[in-house]
Amino acid sequence: MLIIKREKMKIYNNKIIKFFVLLVLSYITARAEVNGLLSPFNVAVCAALPSFYSTAVLLGTLFSYLFGGLVGQAIVYIIAIIMVAVIGFVTSHKTANVSMGLVLVSMFTGVIAVGIYVHSKSGAFITGALISILTAAAAYFIRDLFLYWQKHNLLTLKGKSAHSLAFCYLLLIVTLSSFSPAFINIGLIVSAFLILEAINRYSSQGGLVCSALTSCGIFIYDVQIGYFTVFLPLIGYGLGCLPKMRKVLLAMVFMICNMAVLLLTGVDAVGIKCLIALTMGSSGYIWLNFEKQIFDTALTPLEENIRDTTVQRLRFIANSMLKVKKNAQSAAMHLQKGKSFSKMNELQSVLYGQLEVSAELIGDIEHKISENVSYDLDIIKLVSGVLSRKGVKFDSLTAYYNQSNRLFIEAYTNYEYDMSELSKTLSDALNIQLGYLENVKTDDTYRLIFTSISDYGLDYHTYQKAGGKDVCGDNYDIFYNGSGTAFVALSDGMGTGKRAAIESKMLLNHFKRLMKAGIEDVPLSVRMINYIMNVKSDDDMFATLDLAKINLDTGETKLYKYGAGATLLKHDDDVTVISDTSMPVGIMDKIEPYSEHKISLEIGDLLILLSDGVPESEYPSIKKLLLKEHTDLDLLAKKIGRQASDSSRDDITVIIAKIT
């Protein structure tokens, strides 16, 4: 009980500190100006934050206007921010759209009330309306970014939050530029730091976008200063295109480039002022990374050295395996000239095929390691320390961000641990909400995977019914591979009953093990399983495979069909049937042809996977059900399955997967 009270007290104290920090910042930012007009920035922030913190913004803003003698000048903003704060307290679920609407109504109310009272001309109403719209847009983007940060605890130039981040960045630079004591432009100081970090994390894309937004923000604040920043996007893009440098050296090159711009465009007071600000921001960036070595860019960083060496080893092994397969095949053909060993030929063919697939799978792993991921040595050190203090023994550990800027922590150990407990411990240590992949074991080694929360989620509902009195020959599985991908898999064994159930279960188990082991290439994995199932006994063994591979970072999805039936896709009010001719797994040496379809899923979309127990004649009625039913997907799956069972005696499986 004491522990709970202490924890609550810690959270309470943290909220109080944030409250007073916001109050002070709001007091300062309330006096920001844009082209001689007071900035409505605080009104937008008040609408975007939770009610507790919006009170801090309200109080800080009111105190600033009162003590600064700005009440008359800011009366519209005062009316608006009071309305926003009061209405926000009774708003249960504040989305970005709600925040925008709140500001729009409050600002328009202030503009109209003050305009009528002072008998303003129509031009003043138009100006007030435009400011209201811009403030509402700012509230929308700030709230959208706040919700994204709350969910993922990171900011990224990719994905759905990019436009909100860009707008808020622009707003930040304009606001900070208003506070320029003496010859120091605060906006340029902060932007220099952020440009360097964007170049370091996102290369040329980050350098260009961040620099261009900085230049735009400075132009909005002051056109004369903006002329000096016109070359910033070129500098940011150019530095991002260069081979990756240490942070300290990057900052030094950035300063040199800006000095060169000043010399080329002519030295004047405004240029010197801008150069000083950019140099101060760059110096701050150097100071924060001072513990790093400055002149070691000629050396390959440790993580890149390990990655490159591993890639070369895998490539060498894969090529060697293919060479062995080629030589062995040539020798076997020479020795068997004129002879007939059909069973031996069949087994050799299977073995050669497995050797070839194994080599290609190693090549797939090599390609995955070579991908543009960003390793984070600081997180590796932190996680290593946290796990060690928890008594976790591991053989290797790494942490990296994928191309969607999603964090992955991967470790290998010989012991089994409570993943839920470890995930909570790491989430607290990193201040990031982490999910985890259930323990994957091979021999005596466990693979531990922890990831930050993805943009998309997956909800699913199923219905299954055996065709006869025996067990259902269909099997399905929904699982994650630990690399940001979800799989929805359905397999139908040959015939019905126990034998069919064994075939489909074996296929799914093999496939799931390969995917969760870290293999990404679906066709290669299925080819390997096909060779395993193709080593026939007296009876044939084969099964269909219907698969959806969903990237939870982007929504990009691939549908693979091996002898499987149609898949239905519901997007808004449209239902599409996706089907093709393909071969089951295990029926022939060659798995081709198989079917592959690429689609892009959005939140709310439905994927419906059906076994062949659901006849095509039912598809029109299923479409009607999909367009009619919207909420209870469990009931929808049951309706589809029960409706199909009236006209079919085969095993029936229905899977409805919803993107959330």
Report what the structure shows:
It is a single chain. The chain has 660 residues and is of the alpha+beta class. It folds into 4 domains: 154 residues, no CATH class; 120 residues; 151 residues, no CATH class; 190 residues, Phosphatase 2c, domain 1. It has 20 helices and 17 strands. The strands form 4 sheets. Strands 3-4-5-7-6 form a 5-stranded antiparallel beta sheet, with helices on one face. It has a 5-stranded antiparallel beta sheet with strand order 8-17-16-13-14. A hairpin with a 4-residue loop joins strand 9 and strand 10. Helix 17 crosses helix 18. The radius of gyration is 31 Å and the shape is globular. The two termini are 37 Å apart. The N terminus is likely disordered.
CATH architecture of the largest domain: 4-Layer Sandwich
Secondary structure tally, helices: 20
Distance between the termini: 37 Å
Total domains: 4
Global structural class: alpha+beta
Please, what is the CATH homologous superfamily of the largest domain? PPM-type phosphatase domain
- CATH hierarchy, class of the largest domain: Alpha Beta
Annotated CATH topology of the largest domain: Phosphatase 2c, domain 1
Q: Largest sheet, if any?
A: 5 strands, antiparallel
Gross morphology: globular
Uncertain ranges: 1-12, 291-300
Helix content: 55-70%
Strand proportion, as a percent range, falls in 15-25%
Sequence-ordered SSE layout with sheet pairings:
Blueprint (H helix, E strand, L loop, with lengths): L1 H28 L3 E2 L2 E2 L2 H8 L2 H17 L7 H15 L6 H23 L3 H31 L9 H16 L8 H36 L1 H6 L3 H10 L5 H19 L3 H20 L13 H34 L6 H29 L3 E2 L1 H13 L6 E6 L5 E7 L5 H12 L3 E9 L2 E8 L5 E8 L8 E7 L4 E8 L4 H20 L5 H13 L10 E7 L4 E7 L4 E5 L2 E5 L16 E6 L5 E5 L8 H10 L4 H13 L6 E8 L1
Antiparallel strand pairs: 1-2, 3-4, 4-5, 5-7, 6-7, 8-17, 9-10, 10-11, 11-12, 12-15, 13-14, 13-16, 16-17
